[in-house]
Design a protein that fits this description.
Helix content is about 20%, strand content about 25%. It has about 280 residues and is an alpha/beta fold. The N terminus is likely disordered.
Length: about 280
């Protein structure tokens, strides 16, 4: 009877199913660089030929009752000392910037790299793994396929900068083979979304006030890409990419999650940035 009365009270009050203190307390969205490109059509096949564009680049710091988790690490902090950015013709004419070091952004909210319990990246390209070496003391959460590519004999074959992972070789690691409930309570769940890279992954975060948020990583690069299911030709596996997009869209139907797309700067302009946070 007591349980029924409690359930009725929750329904009447519209309370969170997590009770008075939800496991995820807040999430910080940290600006982790910009990538300026000369030809957007590389990311939107058949469209925007010759159009220059600026991609945002963001890291997400999650405060859970049982510790901090960092998702993605952005462009390398060393780029903050390069006001003109770092250009790479090999990557399709990208110029990468880092206006403020990630380590400084963390310090601003009272967090140091050693405080991060779990560290995970959507994938291992340089604009998501630029500061990975800072988190060698964290538990690394990576799909087994991605781990094999990063620490195998030819990481460059996948576009992975080996230097970004030198200090992670001896890190504690959970090699994942699919979805993974990070804290064991359903509040932060890694979703396996291969295609862009062999072990690409996305993240579902259940915030106490805003509700579920889906961090897509580079499963898609823009809101437009999500809406039109655009898959760049340079993805590791285009067929797998399309399956992953379909799976994410089904997840959104099931959960009602807001979709946050890492590189869509226009979308992120509407989201509070660190040191402010989202609840």
């Amino acid at each position: 009877m007591k349980k029924l009365l409690c359930l009725a009270a929750l329904l009447l009050a519209g309370c969170s199913v997590w009770g008075p203190k939800p496991p995820v307390e807040r999430m910080y969205v940290i600006e982790c660089g910009e990538n300026h490109v000369k030809d957007l059509s590389r990311w939107t096949p058949g469209e925007n030929v010759g159009k220059p564009f600026v991609f945002g680049d963001y890291c997400y710091l999650i405060k859970h009752a049982n510790g901090w988790m960092l998702w993605d690490s952005g462009n390398p902090d060393r780029l903050a000392a390069m006001p003109e950015g770092l250009s790479s013709a090999a990557l399709g004419g990208i110029t990468a910037y880092m206006r403020k070091p990630l380590e400084a952004s963390l310090k601003e909210i009272g967090v140091e790299p050693k405080d991060i319990r779990y560290f995970a990246m959507s994938h291992s390209h340089g604009d998501h793994s630029g500061n990975a070496n800072l988190f060698a003391g964290s538990v690394l959460l990576m799909q087994a396929a991605e781990y094999a590519a990063v620490f195998g004999p030819e990481p460059q074959k996948y576009g992975f900068p080996a230097a970004n992972f030198e200090k992670l070789r001896n890190a504690r690691v959970e090699k994942l083979n699919g979805d993974y409930d990070v804290f064991g309570d359903g509040s932060v769940v890694i979703k396996s979304t291969p295609g862009h890279t062999p072990g690409h992954q996305s993240l579902l975060v259940r915030l106490p006030k805003r509700g579920p948020v889906l961090l897509t990583g580079d499963a898609v690069h823009l809101v437009y890409s999500w809406e039109h299911e655009l898959v760049p030709g340079f993805n590791f596996d285009q067929a797998a990419s399309r399956r992953s997009i379909a799976a994410l869209k089904q997840l959104v139907k099931e959960t009602g999650a807001q979709v946050w797309i890492n590189h869509d700067r226009e979308q992120h302009n509407l989201i509070p940035k660190s040191p402010n946070f989202v609840e």
